UniProtKB/TrEMBL annotation:
Signal sequence, renumbered to the chain: none
Domain of life: Eukaryota
Pfam families: UDPGT
Protein known as: Glycosyltransferase
Family membership: Belongs to the UDP-glycosyltransferase family.
CDD domains assigned to the protein according to its UniProt record, in alphabetical order: GT1_Gtf-like (cd03784)
EC nos: 2.4.1.-
GO molecular function, one term: UDP-glucosyltransferase activity
Amino acid sequence: MTHTPDILKPHKMPISGKPLTGPHLVLIPSAGMGHLTPFSRLAASLSDLCHVTMVSILPTVSSAESSHLSDFFSSYPDVHSFKFELPPFDSSAYPNADPFFLRFEGINQSAPDLMTRLLTKSSKPVSALIIDITLSTSMVPLAKSFGIPCYILFTASAAMLSFCAYFPTYYDSNSGPIGDIQINGLRMVPVATIPQALHNPKHIFTPLFIQNGKNLSKADGILVNTCESLEKDTLVALRDGHVQPGFPPVVSVGPLLPVNIPAISGASEVSPWPDMQPEKSVVYVSFGSRTAMPKEQIRELGLGLEASGCQFLWVVKTTVVDSHDNTELEELLGEGFLERVKDRGLVVKGWVEQEELLQHKAVGGFVSHCGWNSVTEAALHGVRMLPWPRLGDQRINAGVVARSGLGVWEEKWSWEGEKGLVSADEISKRVKEMMADRRHMATAQKIGEEAQMATRPGGASYEGLVELVRSFEGFEVSDA
């Protein structure tokens, strides 16, 4: 891999045993790597400023989370680990529900026990909580009852935050099916962009989402993993109370910088292939750990990448994280595909270090599901994107990519639950357009420069964290 500028280097590993001073902030993430990753990054950033504890909810839903937590706490001994064993949760009322949604519900039900243990067993009195949005229904009122400031780290985009804040108002006043939603002070969210689960009032996620949205206004503040160069208009609308009157302070703290975990650093399957490719020539293709793609669509994607004539590095997934998949690449992609593309394409089914790839000089474009962590990582490194959202908040995130100029979104491409394949010809055309588009390449590089500035001393995201910590100086809550 190439030399990394100092500002983009992962957080240094703290020296074990350095003095723990200042306030004590307790971070409580929820289930899923999309939630855990930004919490780990925030914990690492805050550990340079104050005493930090991060709660580990056990057992984890996936082995990926378990491995990440183990490696993270080994690498960051100054971030204290507080383990909480989740009691058994009766999921019989939610047959066939997503295990991560079940975990959200289980943690909320056990929140009083978690809070009691935190206050009685923490090594230092708690100054404030920073919680995941999925836990706000239970944790915000609990924190208030103990007189503890409670902040939310919103791990998705500010656009999704505005939707989350406004959706309960829309839902309570709407008697029919979900339609297009005009968010106060911002833009309309088309019905096709709204997360699929919210169209079903009986889905386990729908009441949780609505209650969490209502509790946003009760938090003491909201931290968002974004920056002005990506979402300035949305941040202004939220801060000025246009979306929801009386909304708490909104602090942009992103893009949160990667953590340095030697246990996995350099373990990627792709080195040294990128080092042998021309600058800005490689299309990186990945749809995240929670986004599976039908095998028929995977084959069309492969044919499209082949027809594009571009170098590409493709991480293939037919199943979500931790699901068993014995399908061989040759069987999946078609006979002869790997042989035909071997001189300009690398296809892997294993783990890759996405941060390292996106900052590599060879990578010039990113075909992505638009999970928010992927968007912020692309923004930080100034890599243009071709969004292909598949589920959840990903279409809302793709809208952010398009409006900011970080990439071009082909909105008619299908996502989970919609019929039809995106053809190889269409994929090839869009990939070639992305890689030839100098205007969006320049815009992406400018976004990257501004995002990097935000993380430096004096930048909005860096100073937002510093001011947050300063606001708790001298404030501590006694043990219950």
